[in-house]
Amino acid sequence: MDFSLPEKTQELIARVEEFVEGELTPLEPDFLGQPFRRLLPALKEKRARVKELGLWAPGHPREFGGMGLGLVELGLISEALGGCPFGHFVFGCQAPDAGNAEILHRYASEELQHRYLRPLIDGEIRSCFSMTEVDLPGSNPVMLETTALVDGDHYVINGCKWFTTSADGAAFAIVMAVTHPEAEPHQRASMILVPTATPGFELVRNVSVMGDEGEDWPSHAEIRYIDCRVPVAHRIGPEGHGFVIAQERLGPGRIHHCMRWLGICKRAFELLCHRATTRTIAPGKVLGDREIVQAWIAESAAEIEASRLLTLHTAWKIEQQGWRQARQDISMIKFLVAGTLLRVLDRAVQAHGALGMTDDTVLSYFYRHERGARIYDGPDEVHKLSLARRILRRYRQRTGAASPSVQR
Ligand SMILES: Cc1cc2nc3c(=O)[nH]c(=O)nc-3n(C[C@H](O)[C@H](O)[C@H](O)COP(=O)(O)OP(=O)(O)OC[C@H]3O[C@@H](n4cnc5c(N)ncnc54)[C@H](O)[C@@H]3O)c2cc1C
């Protein structure tokens, strides 16, 4: 088994890391605790530079102006970008646009691709994904109340969504709505592209998350759809295929998230180790001289490495065998890496004492905004249930076989 990376990939990652460290990390003080739009002009300049360097939109197909990288390479880039809160944004591979572009690329009509996909990949417009509803469990998304009923050659959409990330300033939303109420639960919903300028698309508020409303790209909106009319031609994929498409989007999308989280882990780990070696806590003693801090460092290193290997293996498996074959692995990394992320962040914050609570380091931003890692794209519990069910199914199928623990 060869774990080494091709030289070309190593060089690519090194270029990305160099850009992040040299060009983006210095901008962080202007991001932490500041309105995002104030920083946007500077970020737009950085985006132009990334394009000049040929590093723009690493995961998107070449024919649409991206780099066309495979999932493993893209994962490694995601890790390199993850340590900076706006790394993905500057390289044109940020959520939710990256996932939405993938959906449009695979399923949207040529007309929709022409109008929305190209400008989305070019970074001229942004988008959002509107599935979770205020009053129903997002962890069981077949329970949807938002409807899109046909009236002539239009859908009329009614419903209330929230946590529609990046809706503020987005040009369009991909909305999950029930188009066939009488169908089987998994075949009731379709995805529909709704331009946000459509009458009846009402952004109620940016939801305050742990004290931060955010704005523009880093924000999560509550949205009302009130008799919102869009052409039937705005449906993405066949009618009733909403959940099938969502699965396809979320499978590889979890690799991006997990590798991004590992980039955050790496950054937090560096800060933890720096603090451990520089913070004097008694005459002649630094924090890292204490065994409890050494244990944090050892545990973090081991957890990060294990999470990273499993995630890269899962990315490789999806590349080789398709995401369906890797479902079990995808569930595993989703809760494993989210847990690693939060433990490593917590230790880094703890080691920084009061400083860890401030916006003078990037830790508290990550701590607040990444708590959601254990909730979005399937809460831990749902992934654990699904993984355990798959494992137990294999044992149940062996009925009649002797129990391995019983000696006959
Ligand atoms: C930062 C962030 C960004 C998001 N971005 C988007 C977005 O862009 N678009 C979008 O549509 N949605 C988005 N979401 C919403 C997200 O998808 C939902 O929060 C998620 O699916 C969980 O749904 P819920 O919040 O309704 O929790 P619920 O479904 O009410 O679940 C609450 C809790 O119950 C537990 N639970 C649930 N099911 C089970 C079970 N079967 N067994 C045991 N325990 C269980 C879990 O601990 C879960 O956290 C985002 C959420 C966050 C936090």
Summary of the model, kept short:
With about 400 residues, the protein is an alpha+beta fold.
CATH H-level superfamily title of the largest domain? Butyryl-CoA Dehydrogenase, subunit A, domain 3
Helix content: 40-55%
Number of strands: 10
Structural class: alpha+beta
Bound molecules: flavin-adenine dinucleotide
| Named CATH topology of the largest domain | Butyryl-CoA Dehydrogenase, subunit A, domain 3
Rg from alpha-carbon coordinates: 22 Å
- Largest sheet entry: 4 strands, mixed
Assess the beta-strand content as a share of residues: 5-15%
| Average residue pLDDT | 95
Instruction: List the strand order in the largest sheet.
Output: 1-4-5-8
Low-confidence stretches: none
CATH level 1 class label of the largest domain: Mainly Alpha
| Tally of distinct domains | 3
Question: What is the H/E string?
Answer: HHHHHHEEEEEEEEHEEHHHH
DSSP helical segment count? 11
Distance between the termini: 38 Å
Shape: globular
CATH architecture of the largest domain: Up-down Bundle
